[in-house]
Design brief:
Layout lengths: L3 H9 L13 H4 L11 E5 L5 E5 L4 E4 L2 E7 L4 H4 L1 E7 L4 E3 L8 E3 L7 E10 L11 E12 L2 E15 L13 E10 L7 E3 L6 E10 L11 E2 L2 E3 L2 H4 L15 H6 L2 H4 L2 H4 L5 E10 L2 E2 L2 E2 L1 E5 L3 H5 L8 E6 L5 E2 L6 E13 L5 E14 L2
Parallel strand pairs: 15-16, 20-23
Antiparallel strand pairs: 1-4, 1-13, 2-3, 2-13, 3-6, 4-5, 5-8, 7-12, 8-9, 9-10, 10-11, 11-13, 14-15, 16-19, 16-22, 17-18, 18-21, 19-20, 22-23
Length: 367
């Protein structure tokens, strides 16, 4: 049997440098002069696939803890587009990349725990608006605030795409979506960033975001498919869970200290033991001639395509309840039907499998 943890760790080791992000509301955290009118369409970062990367070949750091919002009038982007993102620098994960030597960068997060990117306007024509599935490329006027310094930065070739909530490209997300990609550079000296040896080249900062219009919030699911309750991943993953220390999971004492059950919201616990239908992507654990009995159901393929590690409550351990093996299906959305168990899930060898387990009745290709 292929060891689950070994497979999972090797598949995602290169992306273990990123942390969990948090949803936030723009109107609470943005300065009053940047707060958009209520009638504008507002998108907040989802908890999937969002990352700000600092650095290049000599050092690299990343954060997925991103608060903020994008606000706009879909038909008047040139007049209304505003965005603000707060980056949690306290949980910046550092990764060393040795090409031409190691750069040690002092981010001074204890004194300056966040950085803020504000996008003030887009350079687009008056007739440019949001069209479902159509990418928009634009330059933008922006400022970056870091280490107590706020300076203008150039966002060249900002790219974003709007997807309606019915689009098959973002079906794992609970509302209308903006896919938002861009980057800029800062000079270390401008922001009092210290490095050893001295950092003379600009620091590139690149971001990749999915922001969702959640005007109605994420409610307890009620839709049924026959006898099964349809449960979206957005509901299962809409709360904070710290990642475990995977290297300590061989310790019975550490396992006994885990308290994930107490961190799961009551509204999620309401569906414990229910027959559910959940759509996601298969990551086989145990394959025999193209057939699988156990697999992980993932929220999306972002983990493979963009190196973004799924959070522990964005993975479901699936095991056949009828001892049958099913066809392996990769990179194609599937819907699994079965009984969902909620709480810390361990394999027989005490390997932590997450906080969700599904006893599989049936698998169908998602429409």
């Amino acid at each position: 049997m292929f060891d689950t943890f070994s497979f999972y760790a090797s598949r995602f080791a290169f992306c273990a440098t990123v942390f969990i992000l948090i949803l936030s509301i723009f109107a609470v955290s943005a300065p009053a002069q940047n707060a958009p009118p209520k009638e504008l369409k507002t998108f907040t970062p989802d908890k999937e696939g969002n990352i700000f990367m600092f650095g290049g070949s000599q050092f690299r750091a990343a954060t997925e803890r991103i608060n903020g919002s994008i606000a706009l009038d879909p038909d008047a982007l040139h007049k209304t587009f505003k965005a603000m993102f707060q980056l949690d620098m306290k949980h910046l994960k550092i990764e060393t990349v040795i090409d031409k030597g190691i750069q040690k960068v002092m981010w001074n997060a204890a004194v300056y725990p966040q950085a803020i990117l504000r996008i003030e306007s887009l350079d687009v024509a008056e007739d440019v608006g949001l069209v479902d599935g159509l990418p928009i490329n634009a330059d933008a006027e922006a400022t970056f605030e870091f280490h107590g310094v706020r300076k203008a930065v150039e966002l060249k070739g900002l790219r974003f795409t709007y997807f309606s909530k019915n689009s098959r490209f973002v079906q794992w997300l609970p509302g209308d979506v903006l896919r938002f990609i861009g980057g800029f550079e800062i000079e270390a000296a401008d922001y009092n960033v210290k490095a050893e040896p001295e950092l003379t080249s600009p620091i590139p900062i690149n971001f990749n975001l999915f922001a969702v219009d959640l005007a109605d919030g994420i409610a307890v699911p009620t839709e049924m498919i026959g006898d099964y309750l349809r449960v979206p991943f957005s509901f299962l993953g809409d709360y904070w869970l710290d990642e475990p220390d995977w290297q300590k999971l061989t310790s019975p004492e550490y396992i006994a200290s885990l308290s994930y059950d107490t961190q799961i919201p009551d509204k999620v616990k309401q569906i414990d033991g229910k027959k559910v239908a959940i759509t996601g992507f298969m990551l086989p654990i145990n394959v025999d001639k193209g057939k699988v009995k156990q697999f992980l159901l993932m929220k999306s393929t972002m983990s493979c395509c963009f190196g973004v590690a799924p959070r522990i409550n964005e993975v479901i351990y699936v095991e056949s309840s009828k001892n049958q093996k099913i066809q392996s299906v990769m990179d194609t959305p599937i819907t699994v039907f079965g009984k969902l168990s909620i709480g810390q899930q361990f394999r027989e060898d005490l390997m932590l499998m997450g906080v969700y387990k599904l006893e599989l009745d049936e698998v169908k290709r998602a429409r």
